[in-house]
Amino acid sequence: MVFLSSLIVGVVQLMKVLGRFNRARAARLTLPHFTCQTPLFMPVGTQGTIKGLTTDQLEEIGCQIILGNTYHLELRPGSQLIDDLGGLHKFMNWKRALLTDSGGFQMVSLLHLADITEEGVTFQSPVDGKPMLLTPEESIHIQNNIGADIIMALDDVVKTTITGPRIEEAMYRTLRWIDRCIAAHKKPDVQNLFGIVQGGLDPVLRDICVKGLVERNLPGYAIGGLAGGEDKDSFWRVVAQCTAGLPEDKPRYVMGVGYPLDIVVCSALGADMYDCVYPTRTARFGTALVPEGVLKLKQNAMATDERPIDPTCPCMVCKNYTRAYLHCLVTKDAMGSQLLSYHNLSFMMRLSRDLHMSILEGRFPEFVRGFLRMQFPKGDVPKWVRNAMVVAGIDISECCTPAKYPRDAMDAPGTDIPELCPPTKCS
């Protein structure tokens, strides 16, 4: 088809893999506004801003891509105004890369305001109550106006906790909608359209969707519909299945994933890109990310603690402020959430760099083992992580207590290991 061949003009060299360890890869992602290193984490700037932080601060900590929300940007200030003022990059004074979602996630988050049909999804505006029809064509038109480096196809999103025919309906509709998105895309030379793999927790449906999207020869692919309440063993199996079926030379983006442990596991399974509100949202509740997990600065024990959040962290917050000072601010003063957001995003950027460099330098297994030892000093690494590392080909036996790590697990082929650790509602 003509529109398929024209889609990839200017984006053939989008991604170059620089290093590997089994499934994991470190790559260079060349986008119109910035050249990125993967694996990478993208902070969520719903309406063109990361709450409490300036774009200079985001550059300072090494942020490569910011995610904007199509639905919310269209509501306020409006994509036409953004386009008239030179696009979102200029509007928000951000010189690096941008990604916009399609608006599809609001089918889940605003389900009580949405009506989904083959034409598209009709939302009742939470601002003025007026109906808003978001079709695949309109989603792409809005994103063309916004001007992000990566734009997402409109997909039919359902929670992974839902079962029954709705999952199959949504997957096939997602495949039908991708063709409408491709046909509507007016700027394929400067904006990279990614398709989104749906299919719930059903391996057959996921496989059909992967194959259907790959046939469209898109610049990149996302794994959608996860991080919505499913058990972790099911989560990693879907990621492993999808990354195995997606092209080796195209970026793979696991949507909505922001826990550091999840990012390390998914990177080991071959994923490249992640986004989530978690680092900034948890900052607003007074929680800091540290190598051991989290530090809750609201706790009374922090009131007299003169140490930085993380003595190993080089960020501005850890260099200049104590836990005691932050304890006085968190949840009480805007400065507290700003400083913690800065630190938490700095933590995520450092994690991204460490993942990239450890793969590039051939020490990825050592990095993973060191990360797990910090997170689980007692050796109680969750079953789902142990299962995933079997498939990733990383021996983490030294990080686990003997009772927690069957040594023959490393011989288990693929993801077919139900007799070892069956899917459970594990942590």
Can you offer a commentary on this structure?
The protein is α/β, with parallel strands linked by helices. It folds into 2 domains: 15-276, TIM Barrel (Alpha-Beta Barrel), CATH 3.20.20; 283-373, no CATH class. It has 17 helices and 16 strands. The strands form 4 sheets. An 8-stranded parallel sheet has the order 4-14-13-12-11-10-6-5. Mean pLDDT is 90; it is low at 1-12 and 407-427.
List the helices and strands and how they pair.
Blueprint: H1 2-7, E1 15-21, E2 24-30, E3 35-38, E4 40-43, H2 55-60, E5 65-68, H3 70-75, H4 79-84, H5 88-92, E6 97-100, H6 106-109, E7 114-116, E8 121-124, E9 131-134, H7 136-146, E10 150-152, H8 165-184, E11 192-197, H9 203-215, E12 220-223, H10 232-245, E13 252-254, H11 260-268, E14 273-276, H12 278-284, E15 287-290, E16 293-296, H13 316-320, H14 323-329, H15 334-360, H16 364-375, H17 383-392
Parallel strand pairs: 4-14, 5-6, 6-10, 10-11, 11-12, 12-13, 13-14
Antiparallel strand pairs: 1-2, 2-3, 7-8, 8-9, 15-16
Helix pairs in contact: 7-8, 8-9, 9-10, 10-17, 12-15, 14-15, 15-16
Overall radius of gyration: 21 Å
- Span from first to last CA? 46 Å
Number of domains: 2
> And the CATH topology of the largest domain?
TIM Barrel
Estimate the helix proportion, in percent: 25-40%
**Total strand count, please?**
16
Strand line-up of the largest beta sheet: 4-14-13-12-11-10-6-5
Low-confidence stretches: 1-12, 407-427
Kindly report the average pLDDT value: 90
Question: So, CATH architecture of the largest domain?
Answer: Alpha-Beta Barrel
Strand fraction: 15-25%
**How many strands, what sense, and barrel or not for the largest sheet?**
8 strands, parallel
CATH superfamily of the largest domain: Queuine tRNA-ribosyltransferase-like
CATH class descriptor name of the largest domain: Alpha Beta
Number of helices: 17
